[in-house]
Amino acid sequence: MTISDRFPPGEGDFGGPAYPTAFGVTFTPSISGVLIGLAGVALAGWMAVNFIGPKLSEMQGLRDRIAEKEQSLQQKQQTVREVQNIIARVNEAKAKNTEVRGLFSNQQALDTLLLDLNRIIVSSKAELQKFTPDYATSGILADGSLGSELNNKLKRQVTDVAFEGNFNQTLEIMRAIDRLQTVLVLRDFKMELKADSSDKSAGPKNIVTSNFKLYAYVPLSEEESAAAAKAAAAAAAAKPADGAPAPN
After folding, report:
1. How far apart (Å, rounded) are the C-alpha atoms in residues 114 and 111?
2. What is the CA radius of gyration of the chain?
3. Domain carrying residue 148
4. Residues 113, 105: contact at Cβ < 8 Å?
5. pLDDT for the residue 104
6. How far apart (Å, rounded) are the C-alpha atoms in residues 241 and 87?
7. Do 66 and 151 reside in the same domain of the chain?
8. What are the residues whose beta carbons fall under 8 Å from the beta carbon of 101, sequence distance 6 or more?
9. Residue 15 belongs to a domain
10. Which are the contacts of 160, defined by CB distance < 8 A and separation ≥ 6?
11. Is the pLDDT reported for residue 244 higher than 60?
C-alpha cells in the first residue's frame, strides 16, 4: 500500500492560489504589477503637472530675470565706461587747450612787449627806430588768417617795428625774439642795407635797417569769445545774400 492510496482522489488537492477578482478581472501578479506601474506613471504625471511644472516655470522665470539683470548690469557698466572715456577725452582736451593757450601771449606779456623788445635791441647795441601799434589791423581775429577754427577765439596786436644794426646784431635780435615765451609772427619783413658814409679805412659796418609787422596773439576769454561769436552771427544775418537788395 502506497501513501497515495491513503487519501481518496481529490482530497489532497488544495487547488492554485486564490487572486482577487473585480469587474470580472482576476488580479494576478502580472496584471497587478502592470496596474501599479500605470498608477505610478499617472501619479508621476499628476505630480509633474501640479508640482514640478510650476516649479520649472518659476525657475525659468528666475533665469530670465537673472539674464535681464545681467544684461542691464552690462549696459550700465558699458555706460560707465563710455562716460569715463568721455571724461578722459574732455580732460585731455582741456589739458591740450591749456598747453596751447600757454603758447600764446597774455595781456600782461603784450603790455611788456615793448620793454622786452627794447631791452633786446639795446642789449645787442642796435637802435630801435619804430615801435608803433597798428590799430587798424589789431583786434579780434575773424579773417581766417590762422584757420577758420581760431576765428573769434583770439585777438591780435599788430605793431610796426623798425630797428637798425649790423648783420650780427640783426641776427642776434631775431634769435632773441624767437626765444620769447609767446607766439609772435613776423610779416612783411624787409631788410635794407644802409649806405656806409663812415670812414672807409675803418672797414665797412654793413648797417642793416629791418622793418616788419609783429603779430602777437592773445586767447579771448570765454565771455569775449561768446560775445565775438554772437556779433559775427548778427553781422552775417544782417548781410544781404548775393543778388538780394540791401535793406533800407
Report:
1. 7
2. 52
3. 108-228
4. yes
5. 62
6. 42
7. no
8. 219
9. no
10. 130, 131, 132, 133, 134, 211, 213, 214
11. no
Place of cell 569775449: 224
Q: Are 173 and 121 in contact (CB under 8 A)?
A: yes
Same domain? For 149 and 89 the reply is: no
Q: What is the dihedral of CA 51, 54, 57, 59, to 10 degrees?
A: -60
Same-domain pairing of 120 and 191: yes
Q: Hey, which residues does 192 pair with through a beta bridge?
A: 209
Distance (Å, rounded) from C-alpha 209 to C-alpha 166? Answer: 8
Domain boundary among the residues 82, 103, 124 is at 103
Side chain identity, residue 14: F
Give residue-wise pLDDT tens across range 158-189.
999 999 999 889 999 888 888 876 678 889 99
Q: Based on the domain organization, do 119 and 215 belong to the same domain?
A: yes
- The DSSP secondary-structure symbol of 115 reads H
The answer to whether 129 touches 163, Cβ cutoff 8 Å, is yes
pLDDT tens digits for range 95-147: 555 555 555 666 676 777 767 888 888 888 898 899 888 999 888 888 888 78
Task: Give the count of domains, the chain.
Answer: 2
Q: How many residues does the chain have?
A: 248
Q: Domain check: are 37 and 99 in the same one?
A: yes
Which of 160, 159, 161, 162 shows the shortest CA–CA distance to 209?
Answer: 162
In three-state secondary structure terms, 37 is helix
Contact 157, 229 (CB under 8 A): no
Q: Which long-range contacts (CB under 8 A, 24 or more apart) does 11-18 make?
A: none
Reference 17, options 26, 8, 25; nearest CA is 26
pTM as predicted: 0.52
